[in-house]
Write a structure and sequence with these properties.
125 residues; 5 strands; alpha/beta
């Protein structure tokens, strides 16, 4: 995952087991959509590193929901786009209103979920 390192580790302690990791043990398929804001210092702090199977959203505290520009939040010297599709930038989605992107991802996950499988549970956070 190609992310720039920040100078201070910010995020939930890696010794803390988050809900998606626990739900996975119970047979749930878990997916993150939207604002993360739980840290991204290394991959282990990101949604996939914390137990989610997929993630579509932004990692910092806020961004413009139409342009995905997070410069004002991150104090970037240049325009910083913050929209991720699991482990890579969500290329081709910039400029699309986040509400549409996030809703479509939820619909896609629900439609793709195999409800006929015993013990197959789905959670989208």
């Amino acid at each position: 995952m190609a992310m720039s390192r920040v100078s201070v580790i910010v995020g939930i302690d890696l010794n803390y087991t988050m809900l998606p990791a626990m739900l996975k043990k119970a047979g749930y398929s878990s997916h993150h959509i939207g604002k993360w804001h739980q840290g991204f210092y290394t991959f282990d702090y990101t949604p996939l590193g914390r137990g989610y199977e997929s993630s579509v959203g932004f990692l910092v505290g806020g961004e413009d929901h139409y342009t995905q520009d997070a410069s004002w939040t991150t104090k970037c010297s240049e325009r910083c786009v913050d929209l991720w599709n699991s482990t890579q930038p969500a290329f081709g989605r910039n400029g699309t209103y986040n509400g549409y992107t996030f809703t479509q991802r939820a619909v896609d996950l629900i439609e793709a979920h195999n409800t006929g499988e015993i013990g197959s549970h789905l959670i989208i956070i």
